[in-house]
From TrEMBL:
<feature type="domain" description="Major facilitator superfamily (MFS) profile">
    <location>
        <begin position="1"/>
        <end position="427"/>
    </location>
</feature>
<dbReference type="InterPro" id="IPR020846">
    <property type="entry name" value="MFS_dom"/>
</dbReference>
<feature type="transmembrane region" description="Helical">
    <location>
        <begin position="67"/>
        <end position="87"/>
    </location>
</feature>
<dbReference type="GO" id="GO:0022857">
    <property type="term" value="F:transmembrane transporter activity"/>
</dbReference>
<protein>
    <submittedName>
        <fullName>Maltose/moltooligosaccharide transporter</fullName>
    </submittedName>
</protein>
<feature type="transmembrane region" description="Helical">
    <location>
        <begin position="136"/>
        <end position="157"/>
    </location>
</feature>
<dbReference type="InterPro" id="IPR036259">
    <property type="entry name" value="MFS_trans_sf"/>
</dbReference>
<feature type="transmembrane region" description="Helical">
    <location>
        <begin position="177"/>
        <end position="195"/>
    </location>
</feature>
<feature type="transmembrane region" description="Helical">
    <location>
        <begin position="402"/>
        <end position="423"/>
    </location>
</feature>
<keyword id="KW-0812">Transmembrane</keyword>
<feature type="transmembrane region" description="Helical">
    <location>
        <begin position="93"/>
        <end position="115"/>
    </location>
</feature>
<keyword id="KW-0472">Membrane</keyword>
<dbReference type="InterPro" id="IPR011701">
    <property type="entry name" value="MFS"/>
</dbReference>
<dbReference type="GO" id="GO:0016020">
    <property type="term" value="C:membrane"/>
</dbReference>
<keyword id="KW-0813">Transport</keyword>
<dbReference type="Pfam" id="PF07690">
    <property type="entry name" value="MFS_1"/>
</dbReference>
<keyword id="KW-1133">Transmembrane helix</keyword>
Amino acid sequence: MSMGFLGIQMAFGLQNGNASRILANFGAEVDKLSWFWLVAPITGLIVQPIIGHLGDNTWGKFGRRKPYFLIGSVLCAVGLVALPNSASVTQMMGANVLLLAVIFLAMMDASINVAMEPFRALVGDMLPKSQGTVGFSVQTILIGIGAVIGSNLPTWLSNAGVSGVAPEGFVPDNVIYSFYIGAAVLVLSILYTIFTTKEYSPKELAAFSEQKFEIEENSKFTDIFKDFKNMPSLMKKLGAVQFFSWFALFTMWVFTTSSLATHHFGLSPEDTRSQQFNDAGNLTGVLFGYYNLFAIPFAFLLIPIANKIGKNRTHALALLFGGLGLLSMYFLDREHLWMSMLGLGFAWASILAMPYAMLIDAIPANKMGIYMGIFNFFIVLPQILNGIIGGPLVKFLFQNHAIYYVSLGGICLIIAAVLVLMIPQPKPNTGKEIKQVHF
């Protein structure tokens, strides 16, 4: 059921580990990188609630969620092939290479959102609430495997002899071929889920969830705003936790390459084309692969830990370790940075599972898709804010030494850990309406 997540996160890992490097290869300055990355959260803000609303209220011949998997995977695969080749496309079209790269990046992000949001909702559709933690933990395991492969592909290909250096203004072959492989795996894994998973009918969902389940035939897009107004209080409290968590993650994804280049490789902030800068980019991919790899065993541990101490305390512990991991990147030398990824792996495993496992206790089955989409607001809004202020802060406050901003991300994760401890353990929702849920 969740196998498609492997391909989605392989694409996500390729993007996170290489987008900043690719944009820098095309001439983007360090303090402007976060502005280019704004396309990711903005597309998520727009796309996910719409897809969730449509998925809740449409049911076609091919199912409720599966059509979105397929459309998203095909469009994302096109973006994966096109992004690293933006310079070549520019030569044919005469367009601005950075503008074209941002368009392809936006296409990838929108498509990933089209495919990813229904996967979250599918777990809520197909599993009883008591198995929510298990379901999202399985997704986390597949996410880890896909992201490890995606993050490390450029380095593996470089070690296999594929060129890791390109002429000025172009992307190295090891990165380009990695994106080709990612596109193929994405489409194949999504097709596997489509052909091996049978979605429940509305009647089956009604019996399964013990709630009245109806497809709203006259539903309108304005209903999204009504649902937003009536969101459960638990979602609002989790929203604050998500805000600081994803502010930190966005900081890490955007600025790790620049942090390594200046703090660990001793390069000037202006050096974005040397072999050492590309080495820093490769190391970023390796480190991102490590935290995703470490997330896999932690995903197995989340279930017994949560059963022992509760979901909120488990998530708080994981976020604390993640914050310490980001802070430690300033103090550790290059050879020991993998140790920072241990804490981040624990945090990443929990971020991908625990908030959703806590959330589904408060959401009725007929609103699973839209509320998963609305919950995404608390993921994309901190990224948008970070994208706007991150570059100027790095430039004017930290003199383009991004390692200090990454450390600030660690502090944000610790704040998130404190906030999640303030959330009481939720009771499962078996009522018919959201207004009946109180926390």
